[in-house]
Amino acid sequence: MARIIIFGGHGKIALLTEPLLAERGDEVTAVIRNPGQTDDVRAAGAEPRVVDVEQLDVDQLTEVIAGHDAVVWSAGAGGGDARRTLAVDRDAAIRTMDAAVRAGVQRYVMVSYFGASRDHGVDPENSFYTYAEAKSQADEHLRESGLAWTVLGPSGLTLDAGTGAIDVDPPEASTVARADVAATIAAVLADESTVHRTIRFNSGETPIAEAVRAR
Description:
Layout: E1 3-7, H1 12-23, E2 27-32, H2 38-43, E3 47-50, H3 58-65, E4 70-73, H4 82-103, E5 107-111, H5 129-143, E6 148-154, E7 156-158, E8 165-168, E9 175-177, H6 178-189, E10 197-203, E11 206-207, H7 208-212
């Protein structure tokens, strides 16, 4: 059993992850901003914590994270507003990493995206550029944080039923069901061989627990 806190606890991926963790005996805290979402996260097997990560400083986030065994970042601004994208996907994410360090919570799983990299190649004129920058900077901060990190890079997300199988480190992005991203989060949290690794993946043929295991 582990105590896991998920930021972005009402997101599509988080709501699929929480039951998987709860069913195996983990205690899950779902961080949400909207108190109207508490029933949904409780139904998913998580205990809601209503705070606005955009507004909390590192000290406040340290208090939120303290007492857990692992952090999962699955929050996001949802695009559209460049200022808020930077505020959430980069700045708030980085504050949770710094807070995890202060709280002594070593394990941290970042849900990023397939192409995230400092040399992501997105044209600055493209509306996706701010998100690409925010995610790549947050990912790099995590890699340099001293935490026991894993960065997950799923490809294009679908609402298809999960297959329980993925293809790790494929040459190019395709698609993957959100349900399989949720199962991948659960798998890496249970597998220490995934620490200090960036795992990019599509839907595939290899069972998830086998696919993420270091060879």
